[in-house]
Amino acid sequence: MNTPTPSDASASASPAVDEGRPSITPDDRPSNRIIPSVHTGTGPCIELRRLHRFFGKTKAVNDISFSVDPGHVFGYIGPNGAGKTTSMRILATLDLPSYGDAFVDGFSVVNDPEYVRRRLGFMPDSFGTYRDVNCREYLDFFARAYGLSGDDRLRRLRWVLSFTGTEGMAEKPIRGLSKGMKQRLCLGRALIHDPAVLILDEPAAGLDPRARIQLRRMIRELADRGKTILISSHILTELAEICDTVGIIEQGQLLATGSVEQIQHQQASHRDLKIRILQRADQAARWLEPLDQVDSVVVDGELVRFEFHGDIREQADLVAKLCGEGFLVAEIESHKKSLEDVFLQVTEGLVQ
């Protein structure tokens, strides 16, 4: 079988054609049995390279590039209409880029879509089904569509029903399921062929708090099993709890990427500081007030509270100068920005 290697597929990004995806000859079609459950290469498991998607004059995705390492969870943060779903649909081979390319396990979504699909499970933000289909039939249909058969298919069905907690609902029609159970079933559909990569578009939308907690636990367990996960949400606190890396997207542009801690430090140009000064707090406050990086100084006994404009290194320099002036700094507390604070700061000027 003439199977392209990931290194072949990782050629430089090129504009997509409007006529549709390039076809793969019958001899090149992947075997139904070859479905890797973990990353098979040495580079990133997900990679977007200068990805663009235009709808007329609208730039839904505007020059986005990022990568996700194997076994990591990448959180895609942005409001509705920011470009999250469009770029995720391109990764899932449901749409073509206007320019640029995306890669899954080293294979191009433009040139090698069939190989991408066998390495990827996609959970859309909504899904439909036939009215009277039950959960087992629904999952079995997709297992067969991915070429699973015999004991392999039955084994995957049992595992997915157990992992998603839907085994008790296996014979029930999907139409009678709660929103939370439907989301579990949709996750099961994405997992049925044991893919290396999962693309989850707003999986927690509409779920109650208990269901969201359970979903977060499942996602972390999947990452611990070696799955690489791209998950989108506008519920920022949830992504902060489960993601190794996050990307903030607005109006089709990727504005910041990194770990939550890194982005918070990068954007921490304004933080609230509380310093405990022994004996001479009033004098320390008067020393601080003229500084350009300091605002709103308040003294409360031994505590001096103020707004500080600067990064973490500049904060350390300030404390060192206080000590150098002879003030006895007993304690310092810095209020770290939440992910919501960072998001609002990063997107300021774009969101109207």
Described by the principal axes of the CA atoms, the overall outline is: elongated
Q: Overall mean pLDDT score?
A: 84
Poorly predicted sequence stretches spanning 5 or more consecutive residues: 6-37
Largest sheet: 6 strands, mixed
| Quaternary | single chain
Give the C-level CATH assignment of the largest domain: Alpha Beta
Please count the helical segments.
12
- What's the end-to-end separation, in Å? 54 Å
In CATH terms, the superfamily of the largest domain is P-loop containing nucleotide triphosphate hydrolases
CATH architecture of the largest domain, please?
3-Layer(aba) Sandwich
Sketch the topology as an H/E string, one letter per element: HEEEHEEHEHHHEHEHEEHEHEEHEH
Helix content: 25-40%
Looking at CATH, which topology of the largest domain would you report? Rossmann fold
Beta-strand residue percentage: 25-35%
Radius of gyration: 25 Å
Total E-strand runs: 14
Major β-sheet strand ordering:
6-7-8-3-9-10
Could you say which structural class the secondary elements and strand pairing correspond to?
alpha/beta
Number of domains: 2
Care to describe what's here?
Keywords: ATP-binding, Hydrolase, Nucleotide-binding, Transport. Helices cover 33% and strands 26% of the residues. The chain is of the alpha/beta class and 352 residues long. The protein has two domains: 8-258, Rossmann fold, CATH 3.40.50; 269-335, 2-Layer Sandwich (Alpha-Beta Plaits). Strand 4 (99-104) and strand 5 form a beta hairpin. The relative contact order is 0.13. Mean pLDDT is 84; it is low at 6-37.
